Please model this.
Amino acid sequence: MKKILITGAEGFVAGYLYEELKKNYEIEGCYFIKKDLAYKTYFLDATESASVDKIVKDGGYDCIFHLAGQSSAKVAKNNYYDTYKINILGALNFADAIVRESAKTRLIFISTSDVYGTPKYLPIDEKHPLSPLNAYSDSKRMAEEILKKYTEKNLNLVIARSFNHTGRNQTVNFFIPSIIEQVRKAKNGDTIQTGSLSLLRDFSDVRDIVSAYKLLIEIESGVYNISSEKGTSLKEIVEYIIKKSKKTLNIEKNPDLVRKGEPKEFYGSSVLLKRKTGWKRKHDLFETIDWMMKDE
Model:
């Protein structure tokens, strides 16, 4: 049975990834913020090279999913230093440790579709030029470039550029959970705050995303988009959540929630991934929202 390490084990996606992998693989995890988990985990500061060296050398992993890092553009806006430090240095340390200590290990780096920036064409495929618009996506682009350099030293690398994904337990730093939380707390006649709702964005269910991640363990090295392949109106999402709540609420655009330079439409192509693996999404976005709102 192959042995797999999940970094950022305390995070939103990692829990779903563990559930997806546990029947077929021996799983271990590492965390920075302590959390009780259902499998063997270790504390790890991924910015400490000696600690990363040790866990890679001692672990004997066949594959490492590197999810650890700062994952919010909203947080990055107010904390450039930690965003660049964590996202770049963490990736660098794992690449360097794998090359020196355990050449057999595949590194699956979880990047982001945000590295593409403003679309030059739609849907966005893996050949689209990279032009990140914020510190978070720029840190991911820089990490990608460093990791690609390490393939010259035989790093077995897969880069996953995931488009937006959501599900239960995602923090309110992200769009859909923030709207659900506001609506949950609101009383009839209250007003909820949003950014621009005229945008179209690509959203998937986190359970579909991790099903794709599982397929990356055996796929040939390279870069792969994971997307719903369509844009959904943010206005439609907000109105749906309010309708499901059965409340009468007002919507107010808050300038502080509007990101400058945001593209009006942004959605990707997963043709390459589907061609290589046969991956298919199982969950419709609005079914996902129903699941997230259940018992709220």
